[in-house]
Amino acid sequence: MALTLASFAGPNPTPSLENFAPARGTDLRIHDPNIIKVGNTYYSYSVGEHLVIHQAPGLDGPWKQTDCVLDKDSIIPKGDRKAPWAPTTIEVKGTFYCYYAVSQAGCRDSAIGVATSTSPGPGSWIDRGAIIHSGTGIGSDIYPMDVSNAIDPSVFITTDGRGYLTFGSYWSGIWQIPLSKDLVSIDNGSLAEAHHLAYEPQVILPVRQIQENPLCGDPSGGHPVEGGYNIRVGRSVSPRGPFVDKQGRDLVDGGGEIVYGSNRDVYAPGGQGVLTDGEVDILYYHYLNKTVGYEFWNYGLGDG
């Protein structure tokens, strides 16, 4: 089981770049990628107007934009409703759930919503609206929503069918709460069951018998020489934590083993996920190619 999170680079020293494999780049320009495989087709969901969908016959591409998840602005009345952030899509019993965030840069007035569909592609998605709010909105005055930021959602389904929503980044780090059985809402009392998992992350995925937690973090500005974002891992015997690195350091206390970082032409890999493809678990991420540029839309998809 794996939990991927977005976090600041932290105090741990970055391993030598010789320890990192070169990025296996693709033809897809993307930020905060989320990838699933249905049949023989790969689908990616990403930030952009109405949540952009691409599909391809393989991770290496060729990737083609097919349309969007939403056919209009999000029904959540806050943040950037036209271009929601950081979608994550799962499939449960024939229904696809696309969780997304609405917010604005540097703002805690955010919400996480969800759309559902019977197909992973465009055309049949229904926007179900908000699940949780921070800043303003229903439940935003209840702990931990009064200290956290409702962005960067990830949902993990346990073997017994229970769903957990992981969210957050800056403003107190990463939190996790149980979802209702319908996976599009939370029950009364769910916030009282919130667990603090780490300072700054994103997603839970099944990887054998343990939970692993890659972290990625963003510098507060500029492009530091040391490379900004990096991807880290922690593990737990429970999807609810605590997650620790191989030295036993809790991720809430700054732990996290760096598994991938800036190297060669690769700058600031992050926004990662793990795709189980047959017997292989594939780490994918966005990154900047130093030879291309450092603008937001220069981010591309890498895997390895």
From TrEMBL:
Domain of life: Eukaryota
GO biological process: arabinan catabolic process; xylan catabolic process
Pathway: Glycan metabolism; L-arabinan degradation
UniProt key word Cell membrane: no
GO cellular component: extracellular region
Molecular functions (GO terms): arabinan endo-1,5-alpha-L-arabinosidase activity
Enzyme class, broadest EC rank: hydrolase
InterPro entries, sorted: GH43_arabinanases (IPR050727), Glyco_hydro_43 (IPR006710), Glyco_hydro_43_endo_a_Ara-ase (IPR016840), Glyco_hydro_beta-prop_sf (IPR023296)
Compartments reported by the entry: Secreted
Annotated site, Important for catalytic activity, responsible for pKa modulation of the active site Glu and correct orientation of both the proton donor and substrate, chain positions: 152
Enzyme Commission number(s): 3.2.1.99
Manganese recorded as keyword: no
Keyword terms: Carbohydrate metabolism, Glycoprotein, Glycosidase, Hydrolase, Polysaccharide degradation, Secreted, Signal, Xylan degradation
Reaction equation(s) it catalyzes: Endohydrolysis of (1->5)-alpha-arabinofuranosidic linkages in (1->5)-arabinans
Function as written in the Swiss-Prot or TrEMBL entry: Endo-1,5-alpha-L-arabinanase involved in degradation of pectin. Its preferred substrate is linear 1,5-alpha-L-arabinan.
Similarity comment text for this entry: Belongs to the glycosyl hydrolase 43 family.
Protein name: arabinan endo-1,5-alpha-L-arabinosidase
Lineage: Eukaryota, Fungi, Dikarya, Ascomycota, Pezizomycotina
